[in-house]
Design brief:
By secondary structure, the chain is mainly beta. It has 3 domains: 12-53 and 88-190, no CATH class; 198-290, no CATH class; 295-406, no CATH class. The protein is 11% helix and 40% strand. The protein has 5 helices and 27 strands. It has helices at 43-49, 141-150, 180-191, 275-287, 402-406, and strands at 12-19, 27-34, 56-62, 80-86, 94-97, 105-110, 126-131, 135-140, 153-154, 158-159, 163-168, 171-176, 205-209, 214-230, 233-248, 258-261, 266-272, 294-302, 306-307, 318-319, 324-329, 332-337, 353-358, 361-366, 379-385, 390-392, 394-395. The longest helix has 13 residues, at 275-287. The protein is elongated.
Amino acid sequence: MANNSKLFIPKELHAGFQVRSDTYSGKLAYVIYKDGKGKLRKEKSWRGWCKFPGDKDSTRVRVLDGEGNPVQDERGYDKWEWEEKILGEDHAPLVLDNEPMTGFVLNKEVGGVKGSWSSWNTRVEKCRVYDPRGFEFEISIPNLLFILTECNSMKGKGLEGEFVYSWSGPELVLLPVGSQNYKESMGYTEVQNKKVSLRDLVVNHVYSDKKHDHQFVYLGRLPIIKRKREWHAHYRVVVLEHTFARIDKKGFDEESVRFIGNPSSLAEDKGEVDNDLLVKIMEVYAKTDHGSKVVELEIGDVLPRRDSNYKYGGSGRSYYDIDFGVTKLGDKLMIVGLDTDKNYGHGISSCEGSISLSNGSTKITKSDPLLSNRDTEIFRLNIVLESGKKIPLAGTYDSSREYDKKQKIC
């Protein structure tokens, strides 16, 4: 919490209530907000939690005698009973401006102790805060500790200074206006509704993203090696695309630079890139696979065929480590789809097609099943770059994306 400078500070708040006898005002609030697109966030859970005018509410109250004194049972304890009433307009939700204001007061600790013997049935520990507009709400303990490091809490007077409501994802955060987090979060909030379209891009300009994590330098339309997946095939293509150099916000580091196409979170144009930085970026680009042209496709090593774990119902089951390869039939090359199932693999799952090298791109075209010969040799297919580097064209699709992590190009 103390280092969170990415808090969203909305302009409009919506506060709904429940009747709570353990609050100073009798009302506990669930506060949500309207985002920049005019949508109420967490509206469904908010409506399910809040009580509205006309709803019935049961409150536990002490039993009093004719003189207004508590009635006690035979053990000497106060008697209690449930009182049902219809809520009036004083429990209608409030629409509030989220402007800096004073008068917040710390009230009490609520919730269970996380990690205690009974923690299976306890909720996360919170602190209740009184809002001078007549209700209480809850904040997290880390939020409370952050507030106490930024300002004083005076007995009988409450918290010193101005505060606003903010959000870290789904969590409400009461934010001191005098903190550095507030200043940085105002900048973060400002860019959330901004957007840079493709037609607005200017070559060699720097762009910020909405998450404030990186800077993006637009380099124009350059070759980018991308991965695609069709059916079970996972392969690479080289395309001309709007290309950006993604740089860490803290500064240029050759090891951390990534070249990507069309980031979706661009927020604003920061102006032309420094010429020395641009030279460094292009030097890094020239060293990557992106910066080297595809010159040919090469037939590589024979792919090993592995026996599957299937033990019943016949023999001949096998699998491969990648999705597809090529085989030689006379003077003709054919693509064959390969089964990668370790337990029930059928070896060649069979697809015929062609591979073309056009404008630096590789493309797969599939047609009807053709091959099923167990003795057929299957070869790996490689992309050969101008730099001399060879990149396997296909790979095994993995839902955990481990393949993508291991085969990162730049």
